[in-house]
Design goal:
The structure is a homodimer of 379-residue chains. By secondary structure, chain A is α+β, with helices and mostly antiparallel strands. Chain A has 10 helices and 16 strands. In chain A, helix 2 runs parallel beside helix 3 and helix 7 crosses helix 9.
């Protein structure tokens, strides 16, 4: 089901041969009633891939009819030829649907620097669009996978609307592999500005709180479409559902991180403002030394403190706990701490910065020898 | 020789038992003629250790008589008690030398969060100071090592002066271990402001260009003392020698990085200004994905581009080469590149950003499974 759970959407996935024979690699999600309100959040990377640039530009209109997605090729760092490929493949979808090309978005994931096989894709698009059905959500979810070990889908039931979603992203990335992609759909009736506001806020506290290796991809894309098949809904209820859906998809990505052996939640509290709390959480989860200590189940709070100290904080007010066991309090070590076994599986690190109200939560994973081996392999 | 090579300095190293029996762990460097012009560069970390805070404060006067150094304990994150330990141990040196305590600096390296054994150190200081000789440079260099596999010393002969130095730092840090420490000495006659200017500039292009795991330590310290035994010298000649000495010590640290299998020089050119070039070099060397690809000898320029893209650059002007072999030129991949064997040992990555004159060079190492295992061990 996933993206086809809400009324007004159909989807499909086929095998075009981009990833090699027998693996689905091209998908489409279509709004049945024509162009609908749409919103997007994309990577901030200046090396953003052609599909990101194209989708961002087309979404300025606040409406979209369909999204064409492929795995096996990121269409990133491909210059003018890559741009033309994004235009041509989405153009094929527009032709099959009989809509303006500007109503079709694109998402790609896979190795950077290789070119899309435009002819192969364009030739299969009519069949792909023709196959799009209510049952096609799961094949679409499968067609966007790269190193993921399983599909990632979600359905959230709101009070009077449904929200569906699919995503790919195994967080620890295969050589050259770019990215997390996610598509959300709802049958709620919402105008584009509201949709954008809700999506931006949800991304900030979910996907943007996932920091597995500090590497910002060229292709990260998140799009939300609203068919309007059911009546209008409360913005706060919709927002809550979007956060819930994004949280679920982000958690699945962390859990599916290749080469990671555990998920660690870093909770930062007591900051002067949320932004500082986020900066601190990010500094901790960016530290290779900290993440190696997570792997070794080593309660090495000195490394956490050193990471915290790269941010504008007063170290004499800092306290650090593992799983609620305090190891460092207001600038000094806590004596005689027993942490045996506490860090052997998923755990929480809490860092309190002082008396402020600002807080943030970052989800990360441990850095393992497997991660390095996996990502050190030649593509 | 090292720090005792220039006229006017003596040094010694002894075993106080901080690192366990039989290993030198306490050292002193003394200016024979009393307090001399001195300059320092220290970590920017807000969790700076007590010895860093003390030395920085005392160096405001621009003069120092001696430096007390220890390994086996960073005296970091130790609160008021750590501060008193730094004061008491440097006070013991001052008493032995008959100088004001404010003329004695401190440097510590080792695990964060453990306390210095003040009594043990103070009891041995008179003997340590008494042993300080012209021949003591090498024992001092040995006493500051932690996970280093060998001592790191340098002597540079200027036209009419000598510059000596010692350092510790194996870049890949042992659990909890903090730091690079370095002491430079010269017999040149230089006033403190000039000394500070020369040292700051040299640090920027040497130690601060070494980025092995993006982790800024609580204890990083670099101090330069000038005895003035020979006449005055040209600032540019002194600066050149200081850069040479710092370069040599930084290169030894990179080569001694535990868990690293190769050193990679990242040369960024064509930036609008040096600062941007440095930011790009840092982004590349901060990326775990990039450094894992270095380990695997994988010419994965897509990851380099993604790291470059996190900085404010125009990707369409970016070119990337490995060992002068171009793989990405002005925004597009170069076809049919042969790189076989080129990345198997130390190599250079060149990233050109456009027509600017700004440039920077960053030295880094590969990220290896050994690094993670080494740093994942419990302390």
């Amino acid at each position: 089901m996933s993206v086809t759970a809400p009324d007004g959407f159909v989807a499909a996935g086929v095998d075009v041969g981009i990833k090699g024979p027998g693996r689905l690699d091209l998908a489409v999600v279509v709004a049945e009633d024509g162009a609908v309100p749409a919103a997007g959040v994309f990577t901030q990377n200046r090396a953003a891939a052609a599909p990101v640039v194209l989708s961002r530009r087309r979404l300025a209109a606040g409406r979209a009819r369909a999204i064409l997605l492929n795995s096996g090729c990121a269409n990133a760092a491909t210059g003018e030829r890559g741009w033309k490929a994004a235009e041509a493949t989405t153009g094929a979808v527009a032709a099959a649907l009989g809509c303006p090309p500007t109503e079709v978005l694109a998402m790609s994931t896979g190795p950077i620097g290789s070119y899309l096989d435009v002819d192969a894709i364009a030739a299969r698009v009519p069949e792909l669009v023709g196959q799009a059905t209510k049952e096609g959500g799961s094949t679409a979810a499968e067609a966007i996978l790269t190193t993921d070990s399983r599909t990632k889908t979600v359905v959230v039931n709101g009070p009077n609307f449904i929200l569906g979603g699919m995503a790919k992203g195994a967080a620890m990335l295969r050589p050259d592999m770019a990215t997390m992609l996610a598509v959300l759909t709802t049958d709620a009736s919402v105008e584009a500005p509201t949709l954008q506001r809700v999506l931006t806020e949800a991304a900030a506290v979910t996907f943007n709180s996932l920091n597995v290796d500090g590497c910002e991809s060229t292709n990260d894309s998140l799009v939300l479409l609203a068919s309007g098949r059911v009546g209008s809904v409360s913005e706060s209820e919709l927002g809550e559902s979007v956060v819930k859906a994004c949280s679920a998809l982000a958690a699945e990505m962390a859990a599916d991180a290749e080469g990671a052996s555990k998920t660690v939640r870093i909770l930062v509290t007591g900051a002067a403002e949320d932004l500082l709390a986020r900066q601190v959480g990010r500094a901790i989860s960016d530290s290779a030394l900290v993440r190696a200590s997570f792997y070794g189940a080593d309660p090495n709070w000195g490394r956490i403190l050193a990471a915290v100290g790269t941010c504008p904080v007063d170290v004499n007010q800092v306290s650090i706990s593992y799983q609620s066991v305090s190891v460092f309090r207001s600038g000094s070590p806590v004596a005689h701490v027993e942490l045996e076994g506490l860090l052997d599986s998923d755990f929480v690190v809490q860092v309190d910065l002082g008396p402020g109200q600002g807080r943030a939560e970052i989800i990360t994973t441990d850095l393992t020898p497997e991660y390095v081996r996996f990502n050190g392999e030649r593509s």
